[in-house]
Automatic annotation (TrEMBL):
Naturally occurring in which organism (per UniProt): Pseudohoeflea suaedae
UniProt KW Hydrolase keyword: yes
Protein name according to UniProt: Fructose-1,6-bisphosphatase
Gene: glpX
Matching CDD domains: FBPase_glpX
UniProt KW Calcium keyword: no
Length: 327
């Protein structure tokens, strides 16, 4: 009965598959509002659907990375308890619709994402910005670092991959705050994939450069998204560092309330997501790794990646949902 997984972790192995349903449901709900220019509506239906499905899971869960504080987020707020309560005590990081603008414009790579981990294993990050660097698996340790310059990171990845810097592609969020970064990366000769939103996807894309064309992720995005991306990389393999952008006394104080004492700390991937972690992402719009939701007369199709850090199993689930009354 007790296999090596259930002995080494409080996370039930069955959850690894159950978790897929949670992001599938959120993705289908959001996909119905793709391309309608209404971010809020798409986000809201994804939140509703994810919450409903999450409350069916046999877990005693607490949202630690969610839609915001209780006052401003009616559902899936930080601190909200979810699940049926008869099951493992777990912490949950989620983003029912990562890339709301992408979804509203029906552009590539919006996702429904969730990570479930043993209690206390996810960084309780405030909703501030985080500077990030990430690469996929197969590189020697410390190939990239936040303390290194972007030029050094590009050159180091190129060297380790055995190619020239101009043969490397770096994914960066298209934001005015990245003007200097973009200029410096271009000066190395590397190509840049500028994305409008969706850095969880951008970071996951570094794990399969042959498929996505992306080798390295650099720049400043959301801290909640950073923890979610770290959870994903823990499962697939890769390297990542993150530094919270606590650039005002108010942010430093907010972070301190969440237990963060060193505002300049560089978090390694293993510090943002420790222990055993389950991760699931379902494509909402078509993307480089995951197909978006497809609607047909008699079925809805979804494409999901589910994974677990302790076993490093990565599964892709292409589902045909034929009982449409459920959606
Ligand atoms: C990024 C991006 C997200 O927030 O994390 C971004 O990947 C950071 O905030 O999809 P700004 O938009 O203010 O730059 C999102 O765009 C939305 O969660
Ligand atoms: Mg969200
Ligand atoms: Mg988001």
């Amino acid at each position: 009965m007790a296999d090596k997984h259930s002995q080494s972790s409080s996370l039930d192995r069955i959850l690894t598959l159950e978790i897929a349903r949670v992001t599938e449901r959120a993705a289908v709900a959001a996909a119905r509002l793709r391309g309608r220019g209404d971010e809020k509506a798409a986000d809201q239906v994804a939140v509703d659907a994810m919450r409903q499905e999450l409350n069916r899971l046999p877990i005693d869960g607490t949202v630690v990375i969610g839609e915001g504080e209780r006052d401003e987020a009616p559902m899936l707020y930080i601190g909200e308890e979810v699940g049926t309560k008869d099951g493992a005590a777990v912490d949950i990081a989620l983003d029912p619709l990562e890339g709301t603008t992408i979804c509203a414009k029906n552009l590539p790579n919006s996702l429904a994402v969730i990570a479930i981990a043993e209690k206390g294993s996810l960084l309780y990050a405030p909703d501030v910005y985080m500077e990030k660097v990430a690469i996929g698996p197969g590189y020697p340790p410390n190939t990239v670092a936040l303390d290194a310059t972007p030029t050094d990171n590009v050159n180091s990845v190129a060297r380790a991959k055995g190619v020239e810097p101009h043969e490397i592609t770096v994914c960066i969020l298209d934001r005015p705050r990245h003007a200097k970064l973009i200029e410096e990366v271009r000066a190395t000769g590397a190509a840049i994939r500028l994305i409008g939103d969706g850095d969880v996807a951008g970071i996951i894309h570094t794990t399969d450069p042959d498929e996505t064309g992306i080798d390295l992720y650099l720049g400043i995005g959301g801290a909640p998204e950073g923890v979610l991306a770290a959870a994903a990389l823990r499962c697939i393999g890769g390297q990542m560092e993150g530094r919270l952008q606590l650039n005002t006394p108010e942010k430093v104080a907010r972070a301190a309330k969440m237990g963060i004492t060193d505002p300049n700390k560089i978090y390694r991937m293993e510090e943002m997501a420790k222990g055993d972690v389950l991760f699931s992402a379902t494509g909402v719009t078509d993307g480089n790794l995951l197909a978006g939701v497809k609607f047909a007369r008699d079925a809805i199709s979804t494409h999901t990646i589910v994974m677990r850090s302790s076993s490093k199993t990565v599964r892709e689930i292409k589902a045909r949902h034929q009982d449409l009354t459920k959606f």
